[in-house]
Amino acid sequence: MNDLLDSVREKAKKLAKTIVLAEGEEPRVITAAAKAQSEGVAKIILLGDPEVIKQKCPSADLGGVKIIDIAKTDIKPYAETLYEIRKAKGMDMETAKKLATDPLYFGVLMVKRGEADGMVAGSINATGDVLRPALQIIKTAPGIKTVSSCFIMVLDKNSKYGENGVMVFGDCAVNPNPDASQLADIAVASANTAAAVAGISPRVAMLSYSTKGSAKGELVDKVTTALKLVKESNPQLQIDGELQADAALVPTVADLKAPGSTVAGKANVLIFPDLQAGNIGYKLVQRLAGAEAIGPICQGFNRPVNDLSRGCSSEDVVNVVAMTALQSAMSN
Predict the structure, then answer these.
(1) What are phi and psi of 15, to 5 degrees?
(2) Is the model's pTM score more than 0.85?
(3) Is the peptide bond before 171 cis (omega within 30 degrees of 0)?
């Protein structure tokens, strides 16, 4: 495991947050629950039938793990919470009761009701199915209207880029073509993730094919408008744009193209103008530079909900539990 993930786990241990794992009958999740609980990464709640869980992983030591069998739980308070939140959208009580028995909804409702600090799912569910209940129930953080994602990119610690080789790239997984307002939200949320999870002081570069007016066009205008919105809403944040990637990362180029910038040449958070650029960018760095890509990490929710890769390992699940705990500390 790399130093960053070690650090994330150690920080999470000090917080003693409660994280609910909605897919509690999945063997990888059960194994992760046992490890996270025994190591003190978080207090774990597993949703599932205790007999099925025991049958799936008979050797797993789940001492201290709280197991909730939704089928044997009084669903009414959870359904009432959901109904109150969604009745203006036309939801009736019967629908609320039915949805509340879905582990993904039940887990998010636990977070909403303060019974857990965050939820992790996605090992056997699609991203849309994981995020939908969170969007409906937890909603976005104050001042942010867009849920997005980022990757923490870990290069060699002696790398001249980022913070000891650590960088944050957003958005690389969720929003295909964000408008200026959404791009501003992505920048703020990525900066928050950089601080909360990566443990770095964010210096945010809004990327473009233009640097400080070297080119014109709608695509550039979107980035400059987003920058203006962030500066208005978060004047304390170190952020600059529009910057080409070399101007954002290389001091000699920054001196030529963006003299006087406090971000250019030393950015550690890169905000891509759209999903195509972001997805291509992180994969190029991952493959050509040998960087480890940690994520995608969901961001922008009022309380943290994270989506696992369906190819995740049990170790991946523990890492995401730890990151969710750190996000929870930031959102409180």
Answers:
(1) -90, -30
(2) yes
(3) yes
Contact 190/299 with Cβ under 8 angstroms? yes
Peptide bond into 292 cis (omega under 30): no
Distance, CA of 20 to CA of 328 (rounded, Å):
12
Instruction: Specify whether 187 is located in the same domain as 118.
Output: no
What residues have CB less than 8 Å from 186, skipping those under 6 apart? 146, 148, 170, 171, 175, 178, 271, 300
Question: Distance (Å, rounded) from C-alpha 138 to C-alpha 113?
Answer: 10
CATH number, domain containing residue 228: 3.40.50.10750
Distance CA 50, CA 259 (A): 62
Q: How far apart are CA 308 and CA 124, in angstroms?
A: 9
Task: Tell me how many domains the chain contains.
Answer: 2
Residue 67 has a CB neighbour count (10 Å cut-off) of 17
d(CA 104, CA 122): 9
Residue 316 is assigned to a structural domain of this protein: yes
pLDDT in tens, the chain (332 residues): 478 999 999 999 999 999 999 999 999 999 999 999 999 999 999 999 999 999 999 999 999 999 999 999 999 999 999 999 999 999 999 999 999 999 999 999 999 999 999 999 999 999 999 999 999 999 999 999 999 999 999 999 899 999 999 999 999 999 999 999 999 999 999 999 999 999 999 999 999 999 999 999 999 999 999 999 999 999 999 999 999 999 999 999 999 999 999 999 999 999 999 999 999 999 999 999 999 999 899 999 999 999 998 899 999 999 999 999 999 998 76
CA distance 218 to 234: 24
